[in-house]
Amino acid sequence: MIIRQNYLNQIIPLIDKNLIKVIAGVRRSGKTVLLGQIQDYLRSQGIPQERIISISLESKKNKKYKDGDTLYDYLISACANVNDKVYIFLDEIHETSKWEEVVSSLMVDINCDIYITGSNSKLLSGEYATLVAGRYVKIDVYPFSLSEAKEISIQTGKYTSDEALFQDYLRYGGLPLRYSLEDISIEPYLSDTYDAIVIKDIIGRNKIKDTHLLTLILNFLMDNVANTFSARSIVGALSAQGIKTSVDTVVTYIDYIKNALIVLSANRYDIKGKKLLTTNEKYYSVDLGLRNVVKNSNEIDYNKLYENIVYLELLQRGYKVRVGKTDDYEIDFVAYKGTDILYYQVCYLLSSPETIDREFGNLLRINDNYPKYVISGDLPDFSRNGIKHYNIINFLLNQI
Length: 400
Prior knowledge:
Largest sheet: 7 strands, mixed
Mean pLDDT: 93
Radius of gyration: 22 Å
CATH topology of the largest domain: Rossmann fold
Helix content: 40-55%
Number of strands: 12
Strand order of the largest sheet: 7-6-8-9-10-11-12
Number of helices: 14
CATH class of the largest domain: Alpha Beta
Low-confidence stretches: none
CATH architecture of the largest domain: 3-Layer(aba) Sandwich
Structural class: alpha/beta
Number of domains: 4
């Protein structure tokens, strides 16, 4: 397994800081391996193993620790004879009842540095979340980026070319474990992962009874990544299939889906008015492999896939990402990091003068001096009027 240096670079400066390190990401995105890599780093810095305690709350052998009081008592006992700081790693902490009470008390009662993982975006918004409010920092973890996929493919001997790597990534996505599988096993693995997320992280966690409706809504979101639509339009689409539901129900189910981190959303932003818009979010799959095993259409829409990949890449680079609007024109992405602002248009190919005029023209309508980019599958450089054009593979692999 490769070292996930991007995430370690975020976490290492936080070691020994009086903050709970919360590592959040969709199921099987590599959170557990990342915890192990943090522990490896600690050992490389001279921290002995007896000062490192790691518990997976998904393991059956640790079933008793799903009771918060039992987990707390065990950790207090395990740390009783340690005279120095203890490093505590709790994987999938949301499996434990009232876990917020546990970690909040540990921070007070013993000399410890705590790292937890969870596969739900609402991990820190429950009834007891106030117990850890202001005392944690969250690191979002995603499946492999294309550059990480290249690193693991070289390591496993499966790399042949950047183009082949990219086409494989478009089809199967970047869930880490799939790179250790034979090709014939990848789709069953992705299907199993998808089912686990739906059954455990959405249906089970939210006690959903109308699982058929949930499946239809999730399939709609996956089929329509990178499209702008509303909950009302989903109700209309379902009604056309003879399925009756309400806007409120659709909104609730979309929230459940987003909470499981399998689908991510980008708010729309009025660039001129400098304000968030409250309607018609765009949705993206956290992994194209998960999306492709369930999408209803056999049509390959490269514009959607490219936009989805660039959205994920910008998140992995640490940007907050919104969909821009200027007058009646859309800007695919407005990316923010600190005081930096970047604008992006993404398309499959700049195949005609009309397409070139649209993609570059939308960016030219933005009346500021922040960097502007067009990303496409073209190899020739179409940069013009101060707007840079990048081939998508070069953009993804060279961090430009």
